[in-house]
Give the backbone structure.
Amino acid sequence: MSALRPRTIAITVLALAGLALPLVWSHPFVLHVAIQALIWALFAASWDVLSGYTGQVSFGHGGFFAIGAYTAACLTKLVGASSWIGMVAALLLCALVGLGVGFPALRLRGHYLALVTLGFGEIVTLVVTNWQSLTGGAFGMHDYGTFSGLPTDPLAQKQAAYLVVAAVSLTGLAILLYVTRRTNAGPAFRAIREDQILAASLGIDTTHYKLLAFSLSAGFAGLAGALYAYYIQLVSPTVGSSASSALVIGMAVFGGVGTIWGPFLGAILLFSITEGLRFIGVVYNLIAVGAVMVVFVIFVPRGLAGIRLYRRGRQQRGDKLKADQEAADAAS
Amino acid sequence: MAEPRLAVQELTKRFGGLLAVDRCSFEVEAGSVVGLIGPNGSGKSTVFNCITNLLRADGGKVLHDGAPLGGLALHEVARRGIGRTFQEVKIFRELTVWENLSLAALGRRLVDWQPRAKSLMADFKFSHLEHETGENLSIGQQRLLEVSMQLLVQPDLLLLDEPLAGVHPVVRDTIAGIIRHERSAGRAILLIEHDMRFVMDLCDRVVVMDHGEKIADGPPAEIRANEKVIEALLGASHAKDQAKH
């Protein structure tokens, strides 16, 4: 415990310094990148609860993101609700939709489940594109207000928006980490990912936990969508496209699936790299990011978090070999 | 008279046109070991899968202490106190030995299970592998871990599907010891195994299946002398030779 403390302190200090950086280096572009990176980080962490922890791979998470974004925009524009209510509503509605999508998924695995989630994302995109009276169709929604109570000065407004997004994203991360690490849900999710039949044979209610994973994951993806809507101030059908879903999967893989914090960190880094490389050209930066992802998939398949896990595993195997050797020596 | 721990009544299972289990009936009493034997494809594992509701039976009933198990989900059957192992060893391969045991405890909502888990690891001599992942264990160790996960939760009915498959003779003796100990503790054990000496030495009764049908049910000595059993297990020519001698 005492050996861990300095490392924990060091990580906390580094994380706080990283979070404070956009406030210290308060350039509008830096704040803009940091805000979006945190939104994508929450989105990636939410995807990881379902797909990384539970192994129920979703190719349609952009759908939940879009529902969250449109819910927030509609409530604020049509009802005049505050952004806080919009965010809570987006989370709850998406959790409910996640529960609905989760039901057919109970009977499906692997490619079949992936196809269902892909179809779900496409259905959401089609609905928001064609429900013009509510969503504005292909042009999307705008002029619905940003986060409640922000200052009017442009830079101060961006700084305050950054603080709101950081607070909500980090709270979301903390909740997801708590659920997966401190409650029975985390081990049950991992058991389902490893072997559903064995998990059920041991008495684990796999139906309950799969629905919980769907609901939790969809809810926080929706919350990320609401943050996006309030910050960007424009919601169009592209937010729910399969490209969004693919990007979030790439971010999670880059960070290390099945760890929650890995995809969160991976999304921040990958999004920052994408935006930071804009100076080389808006196509070349995407190619560079694609190359980074390919390299990671080939050489570091467990992502950033996997580097640490791999080192720990190697250490354990080393300890075991040493212990076996000592036992053999003692026996002889 | 007390209900048997397990009563399988007229159990039937079809896979399309194939009748995998045909009106099979037998019982397992508390504190007894019953062997379920038969040639490959005779329907033994299908019976296990129907008892635990991994497969839905097409006919018949399965009763546990007199209560029907039909319609229950797999996890509900486990929570009734029925543990099972699988023909191909099933453990969580990417999780450590300790995490595997903790998931067994989670499934049955056990509290204060840790001392018993440590005791089981010590008894089966894999305490030093507590932090090792399942995939790094030998087949024998994996088998012992799989059995330990069931013993941790102390089921009153234990179904063991070929527990000796691929294990070292030393582990075989350990597993035999486990079965004897659990029987003396009052547990009912249903055992599928191809090692006839192991089955005949351990079991109080043996049920024999062939082509989905039960062809014999009785004490080991009686089963050994049963011509239908010999024919099913060793072939018709061997049965004729036996008859000549």
